Structures are given as structure tokens and as C-alpha cells.
Amino acid sequence: MDPKSLRAFHRIAALGSFRLAAEELNYAQSTVTMQIQRLEEDLGVVLFERTGGLRLTEEGRLLRERSLPLLQDMDRLRRSLTEMRNGEAGEVRLGATEPAVSCRLPALLRRFAERYPKIRVSIESASTPVLSERLLKGELDLALCAMPEHAEGLHFEQLYREPFAALLPADHPLASQAVVRLEELAAHRLLVTASNCPYRRKLELLLAGGAAPAAETMEIGSMTALASYVAMGLGVALVPRVLADEPPSGVASRPIEGTAVDMACGLLSRASESPLTPAGAKLYAALRDELAE
User: Fold this and answer.
1) How far is the CA of 52 from the CAs of 15, 55, 77, in angstroms?
2) Taking a C-beta distance cutoff of 8 angstroms, is the pair 238, 185 a contact?
3) Which terminus has fewer CB within 10 Å in the chain: N or C?
4) What is the mean pLDDT of each run of 10 residues along the chain (293 residues)?
5) What are the tens digits of pLDDT across the range 149-193?
């Protein structure tokens, strides 16, 4: 069945007139007549009694009853497709690293959802190498993370620099200082994240480039868990400052003195030959607008 013919049928049935239906649909009356003739030929039934006024036949009444939900579904589908084309609806798969997942995205995505309630955003938390791989496989649309070491086939746009701070047990000797130096931290056991974490690699590069001796380390898989291990006196940690602004009980946070200790962070997406969907482009723009320094 042709949707236009079906829609014309419903308007004729509602208005009781070919002429009024044609005017409402902005068609010539002859066009509406031909649409109904094609619909009747298609179905092999007569839909209207035309003698003594215009009335639906029994077959016409059945078609009207059963086809109305179809038309309503088609209208909803058309609206959804238009919204997707305009970026007002759709699904976006966003990857992100810590601390962005816990500290930067919640409020930002709440505002985004208020502005675009029909765009569904799913979030995957992982390391930059894992997110890069999933982007290349087409399993994510974009990611908020550190700059990847290997970016072939990917595009990275830096938005901000994530500064570091030191986390110390509250009774640690360094906690009495207003600021601490990197070489002072290296003299104590350092709690570090997984070996493929860009933050750990940055720390290792900083320590290797300075005069600090090789530090004893203890690997903790989760960055957000580091503060809990510091509180237990298991060591000290260097974490993004956004995680150190409100340290838990038993933990002190101190800035790092000297050379800036920070990490470049931004948006990672597939190269230009694989453009974002309209909904994905809306989220990309929102992240860039709110996070860019």
C-alpha cells in the first residue's frame, strides 16, 4: 500500500468528501481520486459507497480501523528519522578515562541530556589504549582521554591539560609541607596505576628526566582507588588534581613544586573519512565547548 494513498483514504473517511480531503492535503481532487482508485485496485475491494452520499463500505471500515495504527507508526518513524538526520535524536557511544568519567562528565552530560533529551549516550570507562582500539574497530564513536601514543587512523583534539597533585597519608612527613617536590615523592613508595595507563607513563617520564632516584612502586589497577590505599599508609600517589580536591579522611593533598606536572587531554575520534553521526557531532561540540581551555 502506498502511504500517500492510505493517508488520503483516512482524510476522505474523516471529512466525508474527496474535495475537502484534496484541499487539506493540497492535492488536486483528481489526484486524490486516482490514489483511491489505485488503493482499491491494490486491495481488490471497494472502499467507498458513492451512491446517496459518500460512505465507507464494510471493507473500508476494516481498513480504516486496522491501518490507522500503521499510519501513526509511520508518522513517528518519519519524525524519528528527521530528528536523527538533524542530530536531535540518536545514540552516541562515548569512551572516557578516569578522572573524566567520574569528575568531568556527570554534570556536563546532565546538561546535554536536558538540551537533547532524545540523544542516548552510553559511556565506557577504559584506558586510552583500549579506547583507541575500540574507536578503530568502530565500537565507539568518540572518546575523552589522554593523547594516544599511536594515533594512526585517529584524530586527537586537545581541550585541556589535567594537572597533578600529590596524595599523602595525613601523618606523612611531607604532609607538613605546603608543596612537595617530585624528587621528595620518589624517596617514598609510589602507588601507581596499570602499566598501560598514560598517567603512569607520564609519571615515569618525569621521574626518569629528573634527579630523583628510582622509586619503589606498588601497582593499583584503579586510579580512583589510589586515595584509599594512601589512607592505609601503603604509600604516596600522584593523581590528577581533580581527584585530590576533596581527599578522604586520613589523606592530605599537596601541589607539586617546580616543572608543571600535567597531562594533555582531549577528544579522540576516527579520522575524517569516518565522520561522526549528527548526534555524535552534537555531543562532540558540547564537550569541546565546555571543556576547552
Assistant:
1) 16, 9, 39
2) yes
3) C
4) 87 90 91 92 90 88 90 80 76 93 94 93 93 92 91 91 91 92 86 81 74 73 87 91 88 83 90 81 94 91
5) 887 889 999 999 988 899 999 999 999 999 998 888 888 898 888
Rounded to two decimals, the pTM is: 0.67
The residue behind cell 554534570 is: 107
Which three cell numbers, joined as nine digits, stand for 126? 577504559
Interatomic CA distance for residues 60 and 131, integer angstroms:
57
| Cβ–Cβ < 8 Å for 176, 254 | no
Domains of the chain: 3-85 (1.10.10.10), 89-155+271-291 (3.40.190.10), 160-263 (3.40.190.10)
